[in-house]
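In response to the reviewer comment on reproducibility (Comment 2.3), we provide here a single inverse folding case reported in full, input and output, so that an independent group could reproduce the run without further information from us. The C-alpha cells appear first.
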C-alpha cells in the first residue's frame, strides 16, 4: 500500500510541476504589451502630481499635503462609511 501511495504522490507532484512550467512558457510566448497612454500630457501631469503628493507624504511635509487637499474633501471608507474630517 505504501508503494502505491508513493507512486500516486510522485505522479501528482509531476503533474503540478508540469502545469507551472506550461504557465511560464505561456507568459513568454505572449508578453504583455507596453502601456501607451492615450493622452501623454495628462499621463505626465498625473505622474507629477502623484510624485508631489507622495514626496510630501513620505517626508511628513504637512503644509504641502494640506495645500494639495480640497476644503470639501470627502472620504468614503468601505467599512466605516463617510469621513469628512
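Designed residues, in position order:
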Amino acid at each position: 500500500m505504501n508503494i502505491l501511495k508513493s507512486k500516486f504522490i510522485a505522479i501528482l507532484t509531476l503533474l503540478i510541476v508540469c502545469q507551472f512550467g506550461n504557465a511560464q512558457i505561456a507568459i513568454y510566448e505572449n508578453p504583455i504589451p507596453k502601456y501607451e497612454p492615450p493622452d501623454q500630457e495628462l499621463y505626465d501631469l498625473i505622474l507629477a502630481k502623484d510624485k508631489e503628493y507622495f514626496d510630501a507624504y513620505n517626508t511628513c511635509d504637512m503644509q504641502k499635503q494640506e495645500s494639495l487637499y480640497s476644503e470639501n474633501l470627502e472620504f468614503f471608507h468601505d467599512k466605516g462609511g463617510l469621513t469628512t474630517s
